[in-house]
């Protein structure tokens, strides 16, 4: 899957092939982002609470993505 095939499609997306091994993570975090936006709208959350919520989501994704990339590179070295 390419980044410009995600739904909804990012408006400034350039064609970028997402490795199949990373796709479940990308899709899961895209779902988390949608849910976060919906819950913040429903709760009327604004300002610093938005900043903190997004930071938690991004930090979580960064940790998972970094570990997955390290794993993929290690696997490639042992092939």
Automatic annotation (TrEMBL):
It comes from the Bacteria. This is Uncharacterized protein.
């Amino acid at each position: 899957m390419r980044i410009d095939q995600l739904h909804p499609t990012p408006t400034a997306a350039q064609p970028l092939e997402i490795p199949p091994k990373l796709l479940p993570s990308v899709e899961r975090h895209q779902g988390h982002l949608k849910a976060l936006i919906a819950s913040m709208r429903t709760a009327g959350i604004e300002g610093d609470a938005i900043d903190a919520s997004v930071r938690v989501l991004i930090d979580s994704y960064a940790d998972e993505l970094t570990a997955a990339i390290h794993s993929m590179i290690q696997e490639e070295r042992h092939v």
